[in-house]
Structure formats: structure tokens, C-alpha cells
Amino acid sequence: MRLRNIPGAIEIIRKHPNYIAEPENYRGKWAEYFANTNPLQVEIGSGKGKFITTLARQNQNINYIAIEKFAAVLLKLVKKIKDENLTNLAILHEDAENIEQIFEPGEINKIYLNFSDPWPRKKHAKRRLTNIRFLEMFKKLLSDDGVIAFKTDNHDLFGYSIEQFELAGFLMDEITYDLHNSPLAEYNVTTEYEEKFISQNMPIYALIAYKSNTHPKSI
């Protein structure tokens, strides 16, 4: 689906107080930006922002970073917090390809991958955020007790992703083919896409992958 260009979207986003223009300047210094040493959690592909903004409101003791590469989509996220003072949320207009320029090894506690583009053609497999190429990058950036939470509506992508997490050396013991009828549902925060799928009685696939043997029960 082609995203509609919204004139002035980038300018509006850049004026928002939560927007970070040059995030690479904070690499290894995100604790300084947030002025605390709270855990750092990152959503890659934040979309319209319901998920990350909900978490930021609910958990003031956690720092969140929303990464989205499409300005037209990021604009919707910005509008969700237009009149709020969410000091524990930073917004980045970036591509996941640049993530190692933004964070240093061990700096992130948790990464969320929600309904990432499945890139169904085999020739595009390396573009999938759960391809081993990306997972190895993410693994370097995670703390020793770091975790990746992954959700999708795409059955083929889910099966592929399980294989890739295993190849990348992640540990998984929480894999579900029906998230909303699983123990993980207790901790789940929905996205806009997810609510649409729920209304259509479509199953949501989810897993939690751990860098080590630490098992925080949340998604």
C-alpha cells in the first residue's frame, strides 16, 4: 500500500518537543537525554503510535523511543500527544537500518516489533526486521537481560521469524499462535492494526525472545 504524502508533515514533526532531530548525538547518552537511568525500551516501526504512547503513559518509570521511517505515519503519532508532556518518550524519524548509529551496545532493555512489514517475496527477505541480519544488530544493542517482543498477523512471517530468532541465538519459551487467548494477553497492549484484526476475529501470533536466561513476563 502506497502511503499518501502529507505536505508539511516533516516540518510539523520536527517542531514537536518529543522529536529528536539528530539521535546519533545521544548514542550511549540516552540516560542524559531523559535525565534518569530508567530502563530504555524501543519500538521499531511505531506506526500511528497507539502502542508506544499507551506504554509511555502507563509506565512513567520507563523511557521509550518510537522509531518510524514514514513521516505521514509519524505525524499521526505526534498528533496523539499534541498537548501532553510525556517526558519519557522520544520520537525518531529514522530507518531501522541506522539503529547502530543511534544506540551503543547494551543500551536497550527491550525492543518491540509490532506488525512489521512481512516483505513476502523471498528476494526481499533481508528487509524483514526479523531477518538474522537485523536480529544480530538488535542483539548487540540489548542489555544482557534484554528482550525482543514480536507480534504479527502474518503466519508465514511468524514461522520464518521463529527460525531466524533461533539462528541468531535468542532463547524463546513464550510462543503463541493465538495471543489473545494465551497467558501473554494479560500484558498485551494493542496497536491500531491489532484492533482491526481483533474485530475480524483474526489470530495474532506473538513471541518473546531473550538474549539470556532472564524471563520478564511482558510483551
The Cα radius of gyration reads: 17 Å
Helix count, DSSP H or I runs of 4 or more residues = 8
- Low-confidence sequence ranges: none
Structure classification: alpha/beta
Tally of domains? 1
What is the count of β-strands?
7
| The CATH architecture | 3-Layer(aba) Sandwich
Give the strand order of the largest sheet, numbering strands 1, 2, ... along the chain.
Answer: 3-2-1-4-5-7-6
Rounded mean pLDDT score: 92
What sort of overall outline do the alpha carbons produce when their principal axes are compared?
Answer: globular
The largest sheet, given as strand count, sense and whether it forms a barrel, is: 7 strands, mixed
CATH H level: which superfamily? Vaccinia Virus protein VP39
**Helical amount among residues, as a percent range?**
25-40%
Q: What do you see in this structure?
A:
This protein has 219 residues and is of the alpha/beta class. The chain has a single domain, classed as Rossmann fold. Helices cover 30% and strands 21% of the residues. It is built from eight helices and seven strands, in the order ααβαβαβαβαβαβαβ. It has a seven-stranded mixed beta sheet, sandwiched between helices. The two termini are 28 Å apart. The model has no long low-confidence stretch (mean pLDDT 92).
